Amino acid sequence: MFKILVFGAGSVGTCLGTQLYNAGHDVFLYGRQKLKALASQLSINGTAYTLPPKLTELETAPYNLILVTTKLPGISQAIKQIHHAQLNPQVIAFVQNGLIEQRFYGDFAYHPRFITLSLFNGYHLTPHQLHVQESQLGIQVENSATGHKICELFQSAGICCQITDDIESIRAKKLILNSVLNPLSALEQKTMAELIQDSSLRALFKQIIQEGWSVLHSDYFLPSPDVLLDEIYQIARQVPEHYSSTYQDVMSDRPSEIDFLNGYIVKLGEQNGIPTPYNREITQRIRRLEEKIAEEKTTTL
Ligand SMILES: NC(=O)c1ccc[n+]([C@@H]2O[C@H](COP(=O)([O-])OP(=O)(O)OC[C@H]3O[C@@H](n4cnc5c(N)ncnc54)[C@H](OP(=O)(O)O)[C@@H]3O)[C@@H](O)[C@H]2O)c1
């Protein structure tokens, strides 16, 4: 049995933590608004589960594993809190969406059992139910001793997890796919089905993909831009009613992950002298939308 802390228990963390808890592990959830709103029973894709205990403050304990599942803009704060509470886990695992420089993880990047996980499922949480849209890739973990341990742990709890030899290329591809669907769902206020039905957006899809591919293809193994475009249509067809996480974050006045998506492509373009005007424009439009929603929320208070 492992003692596990889920730091930042929202959609993903609550799901993983609940599955691990119900498989017999000693799991604690630490979160904020989303976690507070949850009842003690949670239905995951129609099956009832008991929620692990919620912590109101971080307790020093000998955790075997800390699973950090905040959104990316929340990670530096999470790292500060974990240090401040002097939690010294045997293994620390971060859920990473897309490509991120290791230095983003501060000291933990040098932890002997530091690991990052890439998630390819879709999670949507309401106070009584969690809907998980599973994809073939499930959860991907690097091929290392710690990666194998995490994979075994997850698989023993019925969580689909796979080891991969080239996790960085998988992440690079996901970065490009997300840089199309995530911001456009928010900017156009459209579901995935509505986005792909709008033929006027197809040219913009292509431009965003082309720029992402141009900044990444020399360092990662990537399919061609045409294949990436096809994959976008396939993904959107699998989750037709879904609004992207960027849409959900922006509408709830939470910081979006735009700086780690299109903003990151722009940054890489600047470093390598490759123009990325479409990704720059998308990043700026999302920032303006975030400001507008924040202003509207303040005015209605
Ligand atoms: N959801 C998906 O379908 C999906 C798919 C692939 C990858 N991912 C990745 O998985 C990660 C988690 O996503 P998610 O959808 O689970 O996000 P989420 O639902 O927003 O959950 C993150 C939770 O962390 C909490 N939090 C943030 N900072 C905290 C702090 N300092 N102390 C305590 N709690 C804190 C947030 O609190 P509040 O409730 O107050 O905001 C939120 O509930 C992200 O990197 C995301 O990109 C998600």
What can you tell me about this protein's structure?
With 301 residues, the protein is of the alpha/beta class. The chain folds into two domains: 3-164, Rossmann fold, CATH 3.40.50; 167-300, N-(1-d-carboxylethyl)-l-norvaline Dehydrogenase, domain 2 (Orthogonal Bundle). It contains eleven helices and eleven strands. It has a seven-stranded mixed β-sheet, with helices on one face. NADP nicotinamide-adenine-dinucleotide phosphate binds next to helix 1, helix 2, helix 3 and strand 8.
Give the SSE map.
Blueprint: E1 3-7, H1 11-22, E2 26-30, H2 33-36, E3 41-44, E4 47-50, E5 65-68, H3 75-84, E6 91-95, E7 114-119, E8 122-125, E9 129-133, E10 139-142, H4 145-156, E11 161-164, H5 167-188, H6 192-197, H7 202-216, H8 225-238, H9 245-251, H10 262-272, H11 277-300
Parallel strand pairs: 1-2, 1-5, 3-9, 5-6, 6-7, 10-11
Antiparallel strand pairs: 3-4, 7-10, 8-9
The site of NADP nicotinamide-adenine-dinucleotide phosphate has 26 residues, from helix 1, helix 2, helix 3 and strand 8.
CATH fold-level assignment of the largest domain = Rossmann fold
The termini sit apart by: 47 Å
Q: What is bound: which ligands?
A: NADP nicotinamide-adenine-dinucleotide phosphate
In total, how many beta strands?
A: 11
Q: How many domain modules?
A: 2
CATH superfamily of the largest domain: NAD(P)-binding Rossmann-like Domain
Strand order of the largest sheet: 2-1-5-6-7-10-11
Shape estimate: globular
In N-to-C order, the SSE pattern is EHEHEEEHEEEEEHEHHHHHHH
CATH class of the largest domain: Alpha Beta
Structural class: alpha/beta
Architecture of the largest domain, CATH level 2? 3-Layer(aba) Sandwich
